[in-house]
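Proteins fold reproducibly. Next comes a concrete instance:

***
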Amino acid sequence: MSETFHGWASMNAKGRLEPFSYKVPDIGPEQVQIRVESCGICHSDLSMIDNEWGMSAYPLIAGHEAIGIVEAVGDFAKGIKVGDRVGLGWFAGSCMSCRPCLSGRHQLCGAGEQTIVGRHGGFADRVRCHWSWAIPLPAGIDPDKAGPLFCGGITVFAPIADLAVKPTQRVGVIGIGGLGHLALQFLNKWGCHVTAFTSSENKMAEAKALGAHEVLNSRDSAAMKKAAGTFDFILSTVNVPLAWDEIINLLAADGTLHFVGAVLEPVQVAAFSLIAGRKKISGSPLGSPSTVRDMLDFCERHSIHPQTETFAMSDINDAMDHLRAGKARYRLVVKHQPHGG
């Protein structure tokens, strides 16, 4: 028997969100159905709503940082039971048979199912996914703040873990926003010496409070030159083009500039700036289900959480306007009210 889900959808590119209902078929044998309690709002939701990446289909219910209670499971779902509180991020499924999946790199699956691409996401009362991507939430993590960990959090945690960043290294974070404010916390507790790069004077004190040992004004050319050759790892969380050769110059020998911010313009870098110091440029999309679990355990152990502002789900357009205006500090969450609003 089919069910009806209720959410908030954009009917066209850059459209306001409005109530929208849609029918879903019987739950699949390996699916999990989640009753959504809250959902983080990510800049990627805006990108999909505005069709910045050219792959949006309307009506579109965005939302890919959902927290909720499992209310149904398919016959072959594993490790998840009705009543569990779980989180769901950007990925809602993977094939489980390709080489990346079989080697534990499900986020690299070529046939991966994305929560808000070609399907409806978490700005709704319910959402479905494959059991492997419904990740149980540890008891020590506040569910009202947890949503952004499932996209923003894992986006910056995964490269720290996957690229084997060492606690003895000097690292930098470019951009102190939704991603960067979590990266500072992770890298500080990882044991690294952490420098925040920002051009916003008003974020410098905040960056230190979040875990930065130093703050470098990216517009101060003298300070940038003085820091040349001192960083083992720099994580770029911004989605705007920068003077990348200047950033590469900050890396020590064998250093890495790693992108998690979706810069749409080509990254212009001179080959010699890489060759001389055997420097590297890399990028990554989120993390595997196993790495998400590791991140959550790390957050629980070190009391790491996103800084969030909460709106009622029925006020989702106000939340979107807040994000578009650049006022979020640092992540937004929309939450269903007790009456289901």
